[in-house]
Amino acid sequence: xxxxxxxxxxxxxxxxxxxxxxxxxxxxxxxxxxxxxxxxxxxxxxxxxxxxxxxxxxxxxxxxxxxxxxxxxxxxxxxxxxxxxxxxxxxxxxxxxxxxxxxxxxxxxxxxxxxxxxxxxxxxxxxxxxxxxxxxxxxxxxxxxxxxxxxxxxxxxxxxxxxxxxxxxxxxxxxxxxxxxxxxxxxxxxxxxxxxxxxxxxxxxxxxxxxxxxxxxxxxxxxxxxxxxxxxxxxxxxxxxxxxxxxxxxxxxxxxxxxxxxxxxxxxxxxxxxxxxxxxxxxxxxxxxxxxxxxxxxxxxxxxxxxxxxxxxxxxxxxxxxxxxxxxxxxxxxxxxxxxxxxxxxxxxxxxxxxxxxxxxxxxxxxxxxxxxxxxxxxxxxxxxxxxxxxxxxxxxxxxxxxxxxxxxxxxxxxxxxxxxxxxxxxxxxxxxxxxxxxxxxxxxxxxxxxxxxxxxxxxxxxxxxxxxxxxxxxxxxxxxxxxxxxxxxxxxxxxxxxxxxxxxxxxxxxxxxxxxxxxxxxxxxxxxxxxxxxxxxxxxxxxxxxxxxxxxxxxxxxxxxxxxxxxxxxxxxxxxxxxxxxxxxxxxxxxxxxxxxxxxxxxxxxxxxxxxxxxxxxxxxxxxxxxxxxxxxxxxxxxxxxxxxxxxxxxxxxxxxxxxxxxx
Length: 665
Ligand SMILES: Cc1cc2nc3c(=O)[nH]c(=O)nc-3n(C[C@H](O)[C@H](O)[C@H](O)COP(=O)(O)OP(=O)(O)OC[C@H]3O[C@@H](n4cnc5c(N)ncnc54)[C@H](O)[C@@H]3O)c2cc1C
What we know:
By secondary structure, the protein is α+β, with helices and mostly antiparallel strands. It is built from 17 helices and 19 strands. The strands form five sheets. It has a five-stranded parallel sheet, with helices on both faces. α3 packs parallel to α6 (162-179), α3 runs parallel beside α13 and α4 (93-103) packs across α5. The radius of gyration is 25 Å and the shape is globular. The two termini are 42 Å apart. Bound molecules: flavin-adenine dinucleotide (FAD). Residues 39-45, 62-65, 71-73, 75-80, 162-163, 189-191, 225-228, 237-238, 242-243, 245-246, 282, 429-430, 452-454, 466-469, 472 line the site of flavin-adenine dinucleotide.
């Protein structure tokens, strides 16, 4: 198999424009003759479904929740990037492109990232037109804040609920099309296989999660916008239902899986509290605009804090180590996530952690409260030396910016973050890896597309904050609706795809057999039992830092755990009814296969880059050390067992950006 990324020729600035000018299109009358399945109605799938239907295609959209409004995208807090340069601080399409390629540690495809930066400006206009209530400054103009890894303010936001507001926009656009009959919405349906006919993706097998019924759906093309797979780690900031099943089934049907080991560990999450926890909570990266990250300088202070004998507010300024500001003076607390996460882990591993388990650092707003308070007192002509007044005014500003995040923190930890620093620790948050796609966002299976977090395309080895929403909406509103026409132009005379064929028979049998096996297994242990064990292997051996010994062990342990799962898993109830445990079992079965490929990918990548930190490859200062030999996308072909997967390489050529050592100092 040869990987053809189909990147157009010509200068990077013109590629997308020229490509759009020349690409095959389907005329409006013919679009009515074409069906498209969109699996997933988060920001990527929802925006794609709405736009494709608006263009005139017949769309069938699927999600496993009871409404598209409940996709994982709703959880996104901090914001969405766009190169609007509203702040006049030197931003541009090129700078967003450059920051994203550098942020991803030179492991993303240059042409895709430039296109992303180009269309970023359209996304904001589109969403404003839909009525998305982005934050505005006093004069009514759209406001921006900063996120990690950049030197400008380009992040548009709606308090700490940006994902929710954007999703309402996409959902409203979808609803208009549902009302027109152009989208047929299948809520509470889970895609369990892709159907390939004559080498092309022509349908899916889905399970109605309420009745248990297995259904066949056909179309001329299938689009997956099914999100990321970070829940392979069990504990993560993902929605509980997020999973890899759709992507994994596509992989088994011929779609290559790219860079599975590229996972983002987010530095500002609420620390793990105990063994019975099933979910981790993110504290948005936007908090790093104003929060300062620190641990005690002295080990004895850290010990006293861990034992509950000392409070952070009792530690003098001179005895605090603002380790990000110390190590990375240029970017300070706004270094990229991979850098911030590793630095926090390094301090905690050295014994300076600040909770009972020693796995937390402080995120402190005291300085920001004073700074804002003084500014407000000045603006209002009040007494700047009145410390109570300054504190009160400062807290009001912090509340207006991050109020809902502070409230969430207080509810979970039962401490008031306006008075005492938050405790944070890195947690699994996003997967940069995913299904390999070409410039058209088509997978290696003709007619099968993949968009949003589910594909691998734009973030390289580390995603910059506020770039996932940008990518999902770029793919769905502005890229796929053009590129899919190139494939569908050949299908205007094909007619409806029948579902009474052997291809559909075989795929349906495959799904039913798997479900039967899970139900009739009658083992001893719950699905969660296996999921938790997988999560522990993933976190301990494939997590924030990796080495060959651990990864080799992980490969063996995951393969053994998978065998145990199939021997001993117990799934109560039946397949022909509402059965949440059965749905979960199928997802964990797929995580158990993906996990092994993940470890295999991490083992083969003998370098450190972005979120993939190999202990064998680091500088003397403990920074990630890239290797030129690995400047490629690792795309894996399914061959039966994860251990037999075959590696294909897409070489990454940086024609426009000079590949340099990645420094945030
Ligand atoms: C707490 C949190 C905060 C975040 N904050 C930000 C932020 O501020 N800015 C930013 O840019 N990014 C942020 N992110 C990341 C961002 O939210 C996600 O990457 C993005 O929303 C993913 O969108 P998506 O449409 O690709 O997938 P999702 O929103 O995960 O949607 C997946 C869809 O696929 C469906 N689906 C999945 N499998 C199947 C199946 N087998 N059958 C049928 N349907 C299926 C689901 O029902 C759902 O509709 C955050 C993430 C988290 C966890």
